[in-house]
Specification:
Elements: H1 3-14, H2 27-37, H3 43-48, H4 53-57, H5 64-79, H6 87-116
Helix pairs in contact: 1-5, 5-6
C-alpha cells in the first residue's frame, strides 16, 4: 500500500463526515486510479473497469466546502511524504486532485439542475 494513500485514508477516516467516502474504496484502488489519471498504465481499468468517477461519488453530498476539506487531507498526506516525492510532483498531483474535487462538485450541481427540469443526466 502506498504510504501517501495510507496517510490520506487515515486522515480522511478520522474526519467522521467523510468516512462514507472510503467505506467501499481501497487505498489500492485510489493508487491505481491516480496512476492511470496521471498518464501511467491503465491499472484501474484493468483491475476494476472503466473509472466512473462522477457516478462513484454521486451518493455523497459534495459542496465546495467538502472539496476543500478533502483537499486539506490530501495535501497533508502529500506533504507528509517529504522524502519520497519531489516538490514539483506534489504540486502537480495536488493541482490535478483539486481539479477532480471541483469537477465532482460541478457534476453534482449539473445533476441537480437537470433533475429539477426533469432531464435525466446520469443513470
Amino acid at each position: 500500500m502506498p504510504k501517501s494513500g495510507q496517510i490520506f485514508k487515515t486522515a480522511v477516516i478520522s474526519y467522521t463526515s467523510y468516512f462514507v467516502l472510503f467505506i467501499h474504496e481501497t487505498t489500492a484502488a485510489q493508487a491505481d486510479y491516480l496512476l492511470q489519471r496521471l498518464g501511467g498504465e491503465p491499472y484501474y481499468s484493468k483491475n476494476r473497469g472503466v473509472p466512473a468517477l462522477v457516478l462513484a461519488h454521486m451518493h455523497i453530498a459534495l459542496t465546495p466546502q467538502v472539496a476543500e476539506r478533502w483537499m486539506d487531507h490530501f495535501e497533508e498526506a502529500l506533504y507528509d511524504m517529504h522524502e519520497e516525492m519531489a516538490e514539483g510532483d506534489k504540486e502537480m498531483i495536488k493541482d490535478h486532485m483539486r481539479f477532480q474535487a471541483y469537477f465532482l462538485v460541478a457534476a453534482q450541481l449539473l445533476q441537480k439542475e437537470h433533475s429539477a427540469k426533469g432531464v435525466q443526466f446520469l443513470d
